[in-house]
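can u do me a favor
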């Protein structure tokens, strides 16, 4: 697995988690949740969960930026046809913002869409995942940072980026997009900060030791979940450390298999070390399914196709099953 955003935008494959982006109940839980073995229990959201599906420990007071965020959400994702309004190197402000301006040395919280102007297709979208993304402006590729200069909160801006710049080289062959092709990015600016958000979290040594004592899990889809259309969350071991909130950066060991045949396609255990990643930069089944989990725990996620890779080229297909040992939150 790798973090999305510094390639931003996981571009052409939305490929994070594990290389690579809500269920109908916002807490990521399902009425179809299966009981784990005697060591675990089905997750009901955890103690203190609010009605909105976010643990009470995670809730924060509303701030001034909420009005801009609400305005952006209310207008919704842009239509791919806006790509027709962009030509040349100059960014186009489709909607002028009225809030604070982007700090080139800070963080911009954005919604974005990447469009292939050749056919008007949408390649990647934070709207599709239902989550904004915090972007350390000076850590993205150069063109992206330059295109945000002078943009204000509440605005929507479109600009072209060469596929090779966005992908950090030639795009994967299966995308059918050449290195010299231009893509159109449409960015809605939700909030700005003068600080660069940390993309790492500290490992809890006791939690890591406990995970290593348990060892790599044998992962398979619980009975009745192979064709699930809702996210299934099972706590095999309940942790007692820090709780995961939406958008957190976490450190985890994990193994992923395809539900239909239990074939493994990825495992941090095989690489000998856990990894850290932001929940804003992974597939939706992870960003929803790990919320409420506590450090020291082991959780199994059965992720329906539409919350996994949704049959993206080069990615595992269908319902996926991950068993995750959480060893740090930051």
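np, heres the sequence
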């Amino acid at each position: 697995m790798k973090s999305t955003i510094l390639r931003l935008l996981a571009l052409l494959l939305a490929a994070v988690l594990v290389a690579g982006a809500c269920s109908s109940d916002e807490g990521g839980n399902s009425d179809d949740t299966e009981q784990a073995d005697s060591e675990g229990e089905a997750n009901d959201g955890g103690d203190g969960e609010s009605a909105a599906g976010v643990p009470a420990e995670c809730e924060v007071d509303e701030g001034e930026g909420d009005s801009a965020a609400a305005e952006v959400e209310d207008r919704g994702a842009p239509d791919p046809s806006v790509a027709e309004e962009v030509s040349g190197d100059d960014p186009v402000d489709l909607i002028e913002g009225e809030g604070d301006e982007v700090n080139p040395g800070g963080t911009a919280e954005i919604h974005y869409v990447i469009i292939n102007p050749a056919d008007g297709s949408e390649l990647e979208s934070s709207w599709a995942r239902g989550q904004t993304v915090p972007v350390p402006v000076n850590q993205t590729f150069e063109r992206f940072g330059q295109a945000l200069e002078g943009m204000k909160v509440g605005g929507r801006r479109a600009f072209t980026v060469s596929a090779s710049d966005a992908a950090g080289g030639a795009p994967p062959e299966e995308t059918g997009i050449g290195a010299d092709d231009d893509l159109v990015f449409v960015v809605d600016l939700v909030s700005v900060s003068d600080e660069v958000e940390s993309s790492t979290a500290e490992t809890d040594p006791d939690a890591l030791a406990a995970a290593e004592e348990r060892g790599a899990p044998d992962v398979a889809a619980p009975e009745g979940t192979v064709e699930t259309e809702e996210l299934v969350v099972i706590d095999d071991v309940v942790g007692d450390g820090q709780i995961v909130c939406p958008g957190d950066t976490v450190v985890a060991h994990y193994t992923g298999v395809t539900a239909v045949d239990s074939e493994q396609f990825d495992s941090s255990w095989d690489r000998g070390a856990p990894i850290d990643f932001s929940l804003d930069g992974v597939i939706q089944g992870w960003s929803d399914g790990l919320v409420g989990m506590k450090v020291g725990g082991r959780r199994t996620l059965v992720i329906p196709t539409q919350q996994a890779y949704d049959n993206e080229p080069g990615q595992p297909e269908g319902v996926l099953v991950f068993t995750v040992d959480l060893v740090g939150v930051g």
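The CA atoms of residues 12 and 26 lie 27 Å apart. hope that helps!!
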